[in-house]
């Protein structure tokens, strides 16, 4: 989205305006106040307190174990750090699958306790009733279709979605169901670029791609992947824009060496007993 205007809070209505104007939407995950402040200052439009925190904050093997009680403190921190970006929080696995009323209870708790602008949940046609119930209660919802990490076992692992005629038709049906249910935007994850572009052209709401090509209305990445903080395998659709992990490792190693050698702290970095010194 354009930043030529004063830095006003990004609202839900701005996503439809950006799509209509052909302005790309920028989004990143965030899990703490410092990253939120930095990304907000950089002009990122949307910060997602993703259930990816399960992996990058808590060290779980998948997103499935993370709980509301673990995500809520992170969402609080991000909302404290962001003054412009729209902050969205993921509903974790198990917090909305029992139906619309459980989903609404979960969404209300997130809104009341964290101050986020909207919530995100996975699923297309299967989640339409849930999305509609939350939206009818006045809570904005972002959808998430294609590869949905909370359903990784049912999908057979990290598998690209939307391939072939049947896959493309299902993806389009899911996208339209999310839109019809009242979502303001939808994430398309691990989808062939040409199919994602067709979905984007068909929908009135904004599409946010992750591994879905350049034809989406915006893009999102897990920030620890994009900026080189993650260890191990990085998804093939990620571009590493920096290597923060290497920089931090070098700094920590230098600090260790300086402490061990007695070089830190030096005289300037120490106090004396002289008054007013």
From TrEMBL:
One of its GO terms (biological process) is methylation. The gene is panB. Belongs to the PanB family. The keyword Ligase does not apply. GO terms for molecular function: 3-methyl-2-oxobutanoate hydroxymethyltransferase activity; magnesium ion binding; methyltransferase activity. Pfam families: Pantoate_transf (PF02548). It comes from the Bacteria. Transmembrane segments: none annotated. Its EC number is 2.1.2.11. Catalyzes the reversible reaction in which hydroxymethyl group from 5,10-methylenetetrahydrofolate is transferred onto alpha-ketoisovalerate to form ketopantoate. It is found in: Cytoplasm. It comes from Pseudoclavibacter endophyticus. The active site is at residue 189. This is 3-methyl-2-oxobutanoate hydroxymethyltransferase. NCBIfam families: panB, PRK00311.1. Its main location: cytoplasm. The keyword Magnesium applies. It is an enzyme of class 2 (transferase). It catalyses: (6R)-5,10-methylene-5,6,7,8-tetrahydrofolate + 3-methyl-2-oxobutanoate + H2O = 2-dehydropantoate + (6S)-5,6,7,8-tetrahydrofolate. Its cofactor is Mg(2+). Mg(2+) binds at residues 51, 90, 122. Binds 1 Mg(2+) ion per subunit. 3-methyl-2-oxobutanoate binds at residues 51-52, 90, 120. HAMAP family: PanB (MF_00156). Keywords: Cytoplasm, Magnesium, Metal-binding, Methyltransferase, Pantothenate biosynthesis, Transferase.
């Amino acid at each position: 989205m354009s930043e030529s205007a004063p830095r006003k809070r990004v609202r839900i209505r701005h996503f439809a305006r950006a799509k209509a104007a052909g302005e790309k939407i920028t989004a990143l995950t965030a899990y703490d106040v410092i990253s939120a402040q930095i990304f907000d200052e950089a002009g990122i439009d949307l910060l997602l307190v993703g259930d990816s925190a399960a992996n990058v904050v808590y060290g779980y093997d998948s997103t499935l174990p993370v709980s509301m009680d673990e995500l809520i403190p992170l969402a609080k921190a991000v909302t404290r750090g962001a003054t412009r970006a729209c902050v969205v929080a993921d509903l974790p696995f198990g917090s909305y699958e029992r139906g619309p009323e459980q989903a609404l209870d979960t969404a209300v708790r997130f809104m009341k306790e964290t101050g986020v602008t909207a919530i995100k949940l996975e699923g297309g046609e299967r989640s339409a009733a849930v999305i509609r119930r939350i939206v009818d209660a006045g809570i904005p919802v972002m959808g998430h279709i294609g590869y949905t990490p909370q359903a990784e076992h049912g999908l057979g692992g990290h598998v690209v979605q939307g391939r072939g005629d049947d896959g493309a038709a299902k993806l389009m049906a899911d996208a339209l169901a999310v839109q019809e249910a009242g979502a303001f935007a939808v994430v398309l994850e691990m989808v062939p670029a040409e199919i994602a572009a067709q979905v984007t052209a068909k929908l009135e709401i904004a599409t946010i791609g992750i591994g879905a090509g350049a034809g989406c209305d915006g893009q999102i990445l897990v920030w620890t992947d994009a900026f080189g903080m993650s260890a191990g395998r990085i998804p093939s659709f990620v571009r590493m824009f920096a290597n923060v992990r290497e920089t931090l490792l070098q700094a920590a190693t230098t600090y260790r060496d300086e402490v061990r050698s007695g070089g830190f702290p030096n005289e300037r970095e120490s106090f004396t007993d002289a008054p007013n010194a």
